[in-house]
Amino acid sequence: MNTSFIDERRITEVLQEARPPQNTRLRDILERAETLSGLGLVDTADLLMATGEDRLQIMEAAGRIKRKVYGDRVVIFAPLYLHNECINNCLYCSFRQDNEEAVRRNLTPQEAVDEARALAARGHRRLLLVCGEHPRLSSAACIAETAQAIYAGADIRRLHVNAAPLSVDDFRTLQEAGIGVFQVFQETYHRKTYAAMHPSGRKADYNWRVTAMDRAMAAGIGDVGMGVLFGLYDHKFEILALLQHSAHLRETFGVGAHTVSVPRLRPAAGAILQRAPYPVDDEQFQLVVAVLRLALPYAGIVLTTREAPGMRDELLAAGVSQISAGSSTSPGGYLDKDREIAAVDQFKVYDNRSLKKVLKAVCNKGYIPSFCTACYRKERTGAGFYHIAGRGELEKLCLPNALLTFKEYLQAENGQLKEQGEEIIHKALNDINDKHMRKQVKDRLARIEQGERDILF
Ligand code: SAM
Ligand code: SF4
Fold it and tell me: Helix H segments across 224-331?
């Protein structure tokens, strides 16, 4: 397949011409961004050069845009690692094949269900299945079998997947198993760096990876998640390439990236790469997140526990809409914690707070945690999702769903978070303008208090 949609020459040209946007130009770009029409490569490249006060202005604009599209909600999820067997040798990852120190672990479907139950007991409803690349263990059949076992055996309402690229037929198998978003991070869009970082195994093939989304969409998976591993190459190049990738999908399938993840390189035991060749410092990283929010206003921006607690809490105000919480990056990590031999972690988690602590921080910052999974279950996916979001109607359904799912979470809570959460729900309920909707939400909240579960709009 033709992969010229990642046009390195064009990106290099744009970056050579890029200048920090001055007064009127900055104002003009921010005003356009706030109409939610997205940004092109030239504007994006200029914004990525901003410093000082201008950088802060961009972050504030990102916060306003996020509010317009997603309101005050922050979606919560946890990763569930299925195995750490891998045929690749990515220089930055503990799971790489040649890492002889890695303790390998492969969960049976029943063990995966047990992990999912443990996460459900803590309050999670949305999980991201993650695994290494292995001809059998990461095959569509294996992932689909595990997904179906979890749906049947645990109170988990949506499973997303982050795994190696598949063929169209294999993506269809996953689609039929009812997975939500399929994520593949390109790691780096820069071909030369990609070749150096991925010396062997299937992942060495850049073209196979960069066309994964096309095959997923051709198979009927409406929501695809993109990402770049920041630290491998120039972050400005990566952002422009990611925009080209998303634009290519939009032109071909009518819908671009559903989510964008922003992993920054973390230390990983047994990895070859111990330091980022292109480190992205905290200020640059905050700007990256904000600029992505401006450039792709409707995409979910996903921030994981690779970042420090303070950074995670702060970035809620600069465009992040989804966060993981209480995460483990090893297969069996939720139940094996107390055992002596634990499988190796993929990388070191930075934010080790429990789910409850993260929820408290989200509430303290004035946001509403959401465990909602309704879009995927009510078929508001792919182009349909964008249609609803573009009409500004997401807010009418998503806020009520956030309140209902947070209320459900709080039923098992007591103490300060319960009190604070109930207050947040009460206030948000009273802020719903539509009288009819307000009454419907109020009734449903009361039903949850009576013990009913999984009520959604
Ligand atoms: N094995 C599959 C793959 O590589 O696409 C899917 C899952 S992989 C475990 C998930 C992601 O973790 C990778 O795409 C990569 O971006 C990220 N990752 C790997 N090593 C990392 C590290 N040391 N620090 C931060 N993220 C890392
Ligand atoms: Fe394997 Fe993925 Fe780690 Fe690469 S990043 S070694 S493909 S698990």
Answer: 235-253, 282-295, 309-315
C-alpha radius of gyration, the chain, whole number: 21
* Cβ of 90 less than 6 Å from ligand 2: yes
In a 13 Å sphere around the CA of 141, the CA atoms on its Cβ side amount to 3
Ligand 2 touching residue 140 (CB < 6 A): no
25, part of any domain: no
Q: Which domain holds residue 437?
A: 393-449
Using DSSP bridges, classify how beta strands 300-303 and 259-261 pair: parallel, antiparallel or unpaired: parallel
| pLDDT digits (tens), the chain, 457 positions | 899 999 999 999 999 999 999 889 999 999 999 999 999 999 999 999 999 999 999 999 999 999 999 999 999 999 999 999 999 999 999 999 999 999 999 999 999 999 999 999 999 999 999 999 999 999 999 999 999 999 999 999 999 999 999 999 999 999 999 999 999 999 999 999 999 999 999 999 999 999 999 999 999 999 999 999 999 999 999 999 999 999 999 999 999 999 999 999 999 999 999 899 999 999 999 999 999 999 999 999 999 999 999 999 999 999 999 999 999 999 999 997 655 555 678 888 999 999 999 999 999 999 999 999 887 676 666 676 666 666 666 667 889 999 999 999 999 998 999 999 999 999 999 999 999 999 999 999 999 999 989 888 8
**Position 198, amino acid:** H
Q: Assess whether 414 and 368 both reside in one domain.
A: no
Q: What is the pTM of this model?
A: 0.95
Whole-number Å distance between alpha carbons of 344 and 332? 10
237 lines ligand 2 (CB under 6 A): no
Are 305 and 406 members of one domain?
Answer: no
CB of 95 sitting under 6 A from ligand 2: yes
Instruction: Say if residue 216 is in the same domain as residue 120.
Output: yes
Give start and end residues of each alpha helix (H) in 265-415.
Answer: 282-295, 309-315, 355-364, 374-377, 382-390, 394-411
Domain count for the chain = 2
What phi, psi does 356 have (nearest 5°)?
-60, -45
Q: Which ligand is nearest to the CA of 82?
A: 1
Q: Relative to the alpha carbon of 80, which ligand is closest? A: 1
Pocket mutation for ligand 1, best pick of 210, 346, 347, 349 (most atoms within 8 Å of C-beta): 346
* CA distance linking residue 209 with residue 165, whole number of Å: 6
Sign of the torsion angle spanned by Cα atoms 400, 406, 409, 415: negative
